[in-house]
Design brief:
With 875 residues, the chain is of the alpha/beta class. The chain folds into 7 domains: 2-107, MutS, DNA mismatch repair protein, domain I (3-Layer(aba) Sandwich), CATH 3.40.1170; 120-257, 2-Layer Sandwich (Nucleotidyltransferase, domain 5); 290-398 and 541-567, MutS, DNA mismatch repair protein, Chain A, domain 3; 429-523, MutS, DNA mismatch repair protein, Chain A, domain 3, CATH 1.10.1420.10; 569-775, P-loop containing nucleotide triphosphate hydrolases (Rossmann fold, 3-Layer(aba) Sandwich); 791-823; 842-871, no CATH class. The strands form 5 sheets. A 7-stranded mixed β-sheet has the order 13-23-24-25-21-26-27, with helices on both faces. A hairpin with a 2-residue loop joins strand 1 and strand 2. The longest helix is centred in the middle third of the chain and has 34 residues, at 507-540. The chain is elongated. The N and C termini lie far apart (120 Å). Keywords: ATP-binding, DNA damage, DNA repair, DNA-binding, Nucleotide-binding. This protein is involved in the repair of mismatches in DNA. It is possible that it carries out the mismatch recognition step. This protein has a weak ATPase activity. Residues 839-848 have a biased composition (Basic and acidic residues). One of its GO terms (biological process) is mismatch repair.
């Protein structure tokens, strides 16, 4: 056995080998040491190898999926080695024959299919990066749903594309591994190196045509050599990990440049599109807007949030669908009630194709198709725009398959096929007989006994059982002669005579005995055969079922966004090819939702007008104090653009948005200590990326550029950045700053306009109004905000004094200001000590006794001479 283990392990050196031993998966040697630590299970030993104990650990087969997931999350890969025959079959080859075993599957981050290992509302993509000479491409597949896509991807675009797609595993050529590791260092994608032959474009084309069963790929569109290389690597890897059993794959879709809004990783993090800063779905834009009721709808909505469209016709069609749904809320809710009963058809179909399904997956197909048939006859959908009515043809047409599954399956099937009991009574006569014998064997024997008693006329006849004879017919010696004489002797065969009774059997009884003894295993075999027949019928219709699943997901997203629009009183945006960005009474969807949950004050809506037909300004320079809402204003306008371009209504009274081809955000402070980058360095790197990539169709939001360095350095960088955005990038932008000096730029640059967040000062306190209005702020109110934050009173008072002196110096000029700074003990924890009183002089003592109102002019003159004499005594 250990020789077999070592041979199989040698073929899979990079994976932990789960070696099947009966009801357990066992691990040995270094695998056992690593797995016991990673899984926190006991490490023991079994036998010896080269004179040393063999480390061993194991996990139950029925609980293996949870252990797979733990190992995958900790960076391991698992080779699942199963028994390919029973011990009884092995013994037929010889008493000491070892049960045949082999690896049937490699479990890696990108090849998971089990529900327990996946997030139902998120795709699990496996991606491949192919490069041919100076060109490169990225292909990705979700084997749990069959979705396949490919796009040209220059190496410089790899990081943002990986951030957009979010693959859990990326395949790269051995030669490029080190380079790709550096590029993707800040992501958590698992990199898997493959031999260069896996990316061979000629071999890839052959693999693809074989996989899809076509003579040519022309029917799927034209693919470049690099795109073929990336797609071919995916197929090659799936053949390796699935041991030749490929999942159902949809025809590959080619994404073209400019098809979706480009959003870099920093912007995705900053805007918290699908995950909040803490990494949770809650608190993100997706978490707030998701009202989907199906797993497929949830995945589709996440894809749209991650990939806002730049196709105005597609966006308009999606908005038309929402408008139709909003016209009748009662019908929309009825549709959602039906959708709530739709299981995850795509993933059930994926598991069926890989032979990892169970009876419940078949029931999921049945239930999903049944609900789709119900929806296909809804008049409200038939009367909708093409984006709604066009879904109907793919929802129906499954009647024969539904009838088959209805007749074949019980209402609530068990999880595993090996448990049996999932085929409905009355579907298969042979199975019914086997189950009756298995479950009601005694009743069948009693019926046969009654029949024999009637046939012989012997009421005392009994059918009994023992371990020697099995089932037999017993009667008293008095009646035995009758049974051994013709014609009964032709039916009843004498077996044994005892002192008090005579025992017989019949051919029918012998056959029944065999059936009863084998009924349990026979029933399971019949169910397995019927299960295979049912899965084959489902796979025949897999293409149509996949289309139905996609249409159900589309309907779910439409009705979900409809409910969202109604709840939040959102409006339909106008999205066109202009450069306009005109929002009336816009709101931040996430902040507003949080305020609503907490019962706080209502969100203060604000307008934003950039590059409109009557407004030449395409950049707003926004000043105002911290905590007043500048960052919220910046983010809300970026999120409104994203919502509009996924085809959703937006939180505003009115919105006109010219297509945003790329979105950039530099908001908030963060460092990257692992890569040796300070907060300011990260800020500069991200700002550089924006200035090097933004164009006229971009939207840029920047907050507090230059704050991580000295005042003059920061002001200079911010000033130059704003000029570059205006003169070179010419992009729509919202630029927030505390450098009030920059407001002067609006006087000499037509494209820049000043805006400020209004505040009110009352009795030394600052009140935030959260209203954005045209104009410039006169101050930052930093000391007041510090007071709100709870700084000690002594610090606040000292700050006021320092601020007054600095502002006074500012008015007097640089030299005066520097003198003040030299004299100010800044950052002093306590105020400077008061000066000691000087000794009183004779002049001061004399003046103390003088009453000015009683002095005559002559007296006053005399007093002056007297004081002068006291001040300057003679030598």
């Amino acid at each position: 056995m250990m020789a077999q283990y070592l041979e199989i392990k040698a073929a899979h050196p990079g994976s932990i080998l789960f070696y099947r031993m009966g009801d357990f998966y066992e691990m040995f040697f270094d695998d056992a040491v690593a797995a016991s630590s990673a899984l926190d299970i006991a490490l023991t030993k079994r036998g010896k190898h080269d004179g040393a104990d063999i480390p061993m650990c194991g996990v139950p087969v029925h609980a293996a999926e949870g252990y797979f997931l733990t190992l995958i999350r900790k960076g391991f890969r698992v080779a699942v080695c199963e028994q390919l025959e029973s011990p009884e079959e092995a013994k037929k080859r010889g008493y000491k024959s070892v049960v045949k075993r082999d690896v049937v599957r490699l479990v890696t981050p990108g090849t998971l299919t089990e529900d327990s290992l996946l997030n139902a509302r998120q795709n699990n993509f496996l991606a491949a990066f192919g490069r041919v000479r100076d060109e490169s491409a990225l292909a990705w597949v979700d084997i749990s749903t069959g979705e396949v896509r490919v796009a040209a991807c220059p190496t410089i675009r790899l990081l943002p594309e990986v951030a957009r797609i979010g693959p859990s595993e990326l395949l790269v050529a051995d030669a490029h591994l080190e380079e790709i590791e550096t590029i993707l260092a800040e992501t958590d994608v698992s990199l898997t190196p493959l031999a260069a032959s896996s990316f061979d474009s000629s071999g890839a084309e052959k693999r693809l045509t074989t996989t899809y069963g076509v003579a040519s790929l022309d029917a799927f569109g034209g693919f470049s050599r690099t795109e073929l290389a990336a797609l071919g690597a995916l197929i090659a890897y799936l053949e390796i990990t699935q041991k030749g059993k490929l999942p159902l794959l949809r025809p590959p879709l080619r994404e073209t440049p400019g098809q979706v809004m480009q959003i870099d990783p920093a912007t995705r993090r900053s805007l918290e599109l699908t995950r909040s800063m803490s990494g949770a779905r809650s608190g993100s834009l997706l978490g707030v807007i998701d009202r989907t009721v199906t797993a497929g709808g949830g995945r589709l909505l996440e894809q749209r949030v991650s990939n806002p469209s730049c196709d105005t016709d597609l966006i308009a069609s999606r908005l038309d669908a929402l408008g139709h749904m909003l016209s009748n809320n009662m019908v929309t809710e009825d549709l959602r009630q039906t959708l709530r009963q739709v299981p995850d058809i795509d993933r059930a179909l994926g598991r069926i194709s890989l032979d990892r399904a169970g009876p419940r997956d078949l029931a999921a197909i049945r239930s999903g198709l049944t609900q789709a048939e119900t929806l296909s006859s809804k008049p409200f959908l038939m009367d909708g725009p093409p984006s709604v009515s066009g879904l109907l043809p793919t929802l129906g047409g499954h009647g024969a398959l539904i009838d088959l599954l209805d007749a074949a399956l019980v209402a609530e099937p068990p999880l595993l096929a090996r448990d049996g009991g999932f085929i409905a009574s009355g579907y298969d006569a042979e199975l019914d007989e086997a189950q009756t014998l298995r479950d009601e064997g005694r009743g069948v024997i009693a019926g046969m006994q009654s029949d024999y008693a009637d046939q012989t006329g012997i009421s005392a006849l009994k059918i009994k059982h023992n371990n020697v004879l099995g089932y037999f017919i017993e009667t008293t010696a008095t009646h035995a002669d009758k049974m051994m004489a013709p014609p009964l002797s032709e039916t009843f065969i004498h077996r044994q005579t005892t002192a008090n009774a005579v025992r017989f059997t019949t051919v029918e009884l012998s056959e029944l005995e065999t059936k009863i003894l084998n009924a349990g295993s026979r029933a399971l075999e019949i169910e397995k055969r019927l299960y295979s027949t049912l899965t084959a019928e489902i796979l025949k219709a897999s293409g149509q079922i996949g289309e139905t699943a996609r249409s159900l997901a589309e309907l779910d997203v439409i009705t979900s966004l409809t409910v969202l629009s109604k709840e939040g009183d959102w409006c339909r945006p106008l999205v066109d090819g202009s450069r306009a960005f005109d929002i009336t009474a816009g709101r931040h969807p996430v902040v507003e939702a949080a305020q609503r949950r907490e019962g706080g004050a209502g969100f203060v809506a604000n307008d934003c007008a950039l590059a409109g037909p009557d407004d030449p300004s395409f950049i707003w320079l926004i000043t105002g104090p911290n905590m007043a809402g500048k960052s919220t204003f910046l983010r809300q306008n970026a999120l409104i653009a994203i919502l509009a371009q996924i085809g959703a209504y937006v939180p505003a009274q009115k919105a006109h948005i010219g297509i945003v081809s790329s979105l950039f955000s530099r908001v908030g402070a963060s460092d990257d200590l692992a890569r040796g980058r300070s907060t300011f360095m990260v800020e500069m790197v991200e700002t550089a990326a924006i200035l090097n990539q933004a164009d006229e169709r971009s939207l840029v939001i920047l907050d507090e550029i230059g704050r991580g360095t000295s005042t003059y350095d920061g002001l200079s960088i911010a000033w130059a950045t704003l000029e570059h955005l205006h003169d070179v990038n010419k992009c729509r932008a919202l630029f927030a700053t505390h450098y009030h000096e920059m407001t002067a730029l609006s006087n000499r640059m037509d494209g820049i306009d000043n805006a400020t967040v209004a505040v009110k000062e009352w009795e030394g306190e600052v009140i935030f109004l959260y209203q954005v209005q045209r104009g410039a702020a006169d101050r930052s109110y930093g000391v007041q905000v510090a007071k709100l934050a709870g700084l000690p009173g002594a610090v606040i008072e000292r700050a006021r004094i320092v601020l007054d002196m600095l502002e006074s110096g500012e008015r007097k000029g640089v030299a005066a200001r520097e003198t003040i700074i030299d004299d100010l003990p800044l950052f002093s924890a306590t105020p400077p000590p008061a000066p000691k009183p000087a000794k009183t002089s004779e002049v001061e003592e004399r003046l103390e006794s003088v009453l000015p109102d009683q002095l005559t002019p002559m007296d006053a003159l005399a007093l002056i001479y007297e004081l002068k004499a006291l001040k300057e005594p003679s030598a």
